[in-house]
Design goal:
By secondary structure, the protein is an alpha+beta fold. The protein has one domain: Peptide Deformylase, CATH 3.90.45. Helix content is 26%, strand content 31%. It contains 4 helices and 7 strands; from the N terminus they run βαββαβββααβ. The strands form 2 sheets. The chain has a 5-stranded antiparallel β-sheet, sandwiched between helices. A two-stranded parallel sheet has the order 1-7. A hairpin with a 5-residue loop joins β5 and β6.
Length: 195
């Protein structure tokens, strides 16, 4: 089932999410619905707060970026990028390392706004998969970027908060419009309040 995506201004997007246990009600169905919702919206990741649930759960599929990464790196070095498709439950950041790099990000909860965000190249996480098997894993390249972005959602942080001050000023009016429901997307959005 395709779920509505909670738009900028919804309080759940600004709260630190809670951990869950394996007996979380209808967890398997929720994960399936999140995949379906993400793909329908042409996303590469979606976190539970984006579908209105304040829990530490997100899904990531970086295969759509595979071609983009190949094009960018072909000239510099042989391709090392391996796309991922994973479920992350109760993820906790162990460390971020490497040189900071800039990449343009967007967010399904903040349609039509994109901006350059600096993030470290590598992130190491401890998390559970959909079967509640624990993993400790390191991600780099675009995988790290997407994982960091979705992890931030479980911490109540939006990518717009990481933009340079001048860019924040430039998008302020657009964010205000999203907050009051004056925006469109090719997928269903749920707004905090409409005037």
């Amino acid at each position: 089932m395709i779920l509505p995506i909670y738009a900028y201004g919804q309080p759940v997007l600004k709260k630190v999410a809670e951990e869950i246990t394996p007996d979380y009600p209808e967890l398997k169905k929720l994960i399936e619905d999140m995949w379906e919702t993400m793909y329908q919206a042409d996303g590469v990741g979606i976190a539970a707060p984006q579908v209105g649930l304040g829990i530490r759960l997100f899904v990531v599929d970086t295969h759509p970026h595979e071609e983009e990464e190949t094009d960018e790196k072909e000239e510099k070095e042989p391709l090392k990028y391996v796309p991922i498709k994973k479920v992350f439950i109760n993820a906790q950041k162990i460390e971020e390392t490497g040189k900071e790099w800039t990449f343009e990000e967007g967010c399904l909860s903040i349609p039509d706004i994109r901006g350059d965000v600096d993030r470290p190249e590598i992130i190491r996480l401890r998390y559970f998969d959909e079967n509640f098997v624990e993993h400790e894993e390191t991600f780099d390249s675009l995988n790290a970027r997407v994982v960091q972005h979705e992890y931030d959602h479980t911490e109540g942080v939006l990518f717009t908060e990481l933009l340079k001050p001048i860019k924040k000023q430039l998008i302020k009016r657009k964010l205000d419009k999203i907050r009051i429901g004056q925006c469109k997307a090719d997928y269903k959005l749920k707004f905090a309040n409409r005037r």
